[in-house]
Amino acid sequence: MEPNADKLRGLRITSLDDEDDDETELPNQPLPASTVTVAAAPSGYDDEDEDEEAEVMLGFLEKPKHPGLLLRHLFPSKAGGIPAWLDPVNLPTGNSSCCGFCGEPLHFVLQIYAPIESNAAAFHRTLFMFMCPSMACLHRDQHEQWTRNQGNPRRSVRVFRCQLPRTNVFYSSEPPSRNNSDKPLCAGEKHRTVNVPTAETKFGGAALCHWCGTWKGDKICGGCKKSRYCSEKHQALHWRSGHKNDCLQIINSSEASSSVLPAVGKVPARTSWPEYQIAIDDEVDLDSDGCDEDSSKSLVMQKHGKPDDTMQSWMDQFEADADNQCWAYFQERISRAPEQVLRYCRDPNVKPLWALSAGRPSNPDIPSCSYCKGPLCYEFQIMPQLLYYFGVRNEPNSLDWATIVVYTCQETCDQNISYKEEFAWVQLYPTSISRP
Fold first, then answer.
1. Whole-angstrom Cα distance, residue 16 to residue 12?
2. Does the structure show a pLDDT above 50 at 323?
3. Residue 406's closest CA among 135, 137, 140, 114?
4. Which of left, alpha, beta for 180 (phi over 0: left; psi -120 to 50: alpha)?
5. What range defines the domain where residue 405 resides?
6. What is the DSSP string of 128-147?
7. CA-to-CA distance for 387 and 22, rounded, in angstroms?
8. Domain count along the chain
9. 134-185: pLDDT as tens digits
10. Are 55 and 306 in contact, with CB atoms under 8 Å apart?
11. Which regions of 166-273 does DSSP assign to beta strands (E)?
12. Which residue, 389, 308, 285, is CA-closest to 24?
């Protein structure tokens, strides 16, 4: 199947058609559990799957009207930038914040606010995804995931679940009014030690790395004793970018000036992907809007951003094998809303939308919850169109994927751990798929 694989690999999504003049503003709201509606899947799409489709919620990216809308006490769903940690004090640390292959701190991808109404312990619930920007590490991750049940494999994609009851030390029990008067409680003060840095006091949480603004800054500059870092690499980057001079000014001044010491959260643009708000809509609602096939946008793009007019011609010549049918079905589903970057449906009977038959997990490949040992269920997946919004170029060694699927604890267990790591399955394009 190598010639076919090469053709499929060339279909990487890299750009969008010009946006329509009439834009629909989508609300920023929690992602609800979806219901299941019966529909026929193409023959041979999945021998193991039932012939049913999920009514999924789709995520679309839009620039926030105001950065304040993405602050943690407003419980945002967002992509890029820095995370709005739900628990701002007890952040993941150590190996959890780093790529298991290169050892570098992971980049924030997105977070989804997805509370569970039936679970009092998950009145507030957010899922956070992080990823190493190296495609070489993602290749190794895709290979390593097959050995999930053979110990604790290294990963370059990590997903954390954080949840809180309605009454907690960080947020009011009343919903935010969203009229610019909302503020978090004076959170986490009883968790702090005596010598708390200014940044921690100001933002009501753990002091974050002054370079990436993402991970806990548990390393302190030996000179000024003010700047904090999550890793030696970020300390070195900050030093070379100008802290070498700022450090001397801080030491020589009677007190640190805010103009010299950057505020936590003001992150160098090159260290994070562009920030967007995630707006959601129901896939069924988009289907009902309808548009004729000739005028609908084409999802598949050439490397220069033009629609692939030859796709159907060579697709018709393919043998009717499982990968081709799976790809065609994947293509048809996402063409209903080509700009989608996220698909969400938390239902234990629902399966993800796979791009290909190859590289999908079987039931034994999905581990149990690391905390309660109960089953995991599919909750959401990210689509390759996210790479376009993040400005990732379509080059041989650029970050790329077919889809990344996230499985979370079916019971959304509460084990007195602030950030519980869930399981992500990486599906790459055919030329990248390998199984030991």
1. 12
2. yes
3. 114
4. left
5. 59-172+274-284+339-427
6. EEEE-S-HHHHHHHHHHGGG
7. 24
8. 1
9. 999 999 998 888 876 555 678 999 999 999 999 999 999 998 887 777 777 7
10. no
11. 219-220, 228-229
12. 285
Least confident of 102-106, 323-327, 381-385: 323-327
In a domain, 290, yes or no: no
The answer to the question of residue 249 being in a domain is no
Tokens of 160: 């954390």
Residue-wise pLDDT for 285-316, tens only, equals 776 554 444 433 444 443 344 455 565 555 55
Amino acid at 47: D
- Angle (CA) 327-133-351 rounded to 5° is 35
DSSP 35-79: PEE--PPPTTS-SSS-S-EE--EEEEEE--SSGGGGSGGG---EE
Give a yes or no: residue 251 inside a domain: no
Domain membership flag for residue 31: no
If we measure between CA atoms, which residue out of 432, 423, 422 comes closest to residue 399? 432
Task: Retrieve residue 324's tokens.
Answer: 């081709």
| Tally of CB atoms within 10 A around 349 | 10
Record the pTM. Answer: 0.78
Q: What is the mean pLDDT of the chain?
A: 76
Instruction: Name the pLDDT band for 255 (thresholds 50, 70, 90).
Output: low
The span from the CA of 89 to the CA of 188, in Å, is: 6
The residue assigned the tokens 């590289």 is 359
